[in-house]
Description:
Elements: H1 2-5, H2 18-55, H3 61-80, H4 84-105, H5 110-135
Helix pairs in contact: 2-3, 2-5, 3-4, 3-5, 4-5
Amino acid sequence: MSRLTNNHSYGHSHGHSPGDVNQLRFAAKSVGVLALLTGLIYLRVVGVESIGAIRTGQWGQNIVILFFLMILATLGLFCAWRLEAVGGIIALVSGVGVAILTYLTFEQNRLFTTFAYSSPFLVAGGLSLACWWRSRD
């Protein structure tokens, strides 16, 4: 009967086995690495556009803010490797900012662009927070 109800706490107050948390942590770090690589590519693309906007005098304020939000989100992913809660919150909040700003900035394929630019940070940040939440005592 205990196998069905899982009455074993494995030393955790929330009843999650260490294997469950380790699997979630592995998934979070795997997705985090992919999101980090994607974020670095996006930084290059958006960075070139924002530098070009500044040089030509077409001060694209939104694109520059987007660039700094992406820097912050990418730093959040780096931080989430060791500090899951802090890095997850930074990546998640920055990802929401990236989503809002891309929706307001890009006129063509608005929803796809918003999803493409923000989802790596939102998913990786959310997984890092879930990992922290399940492993806390």
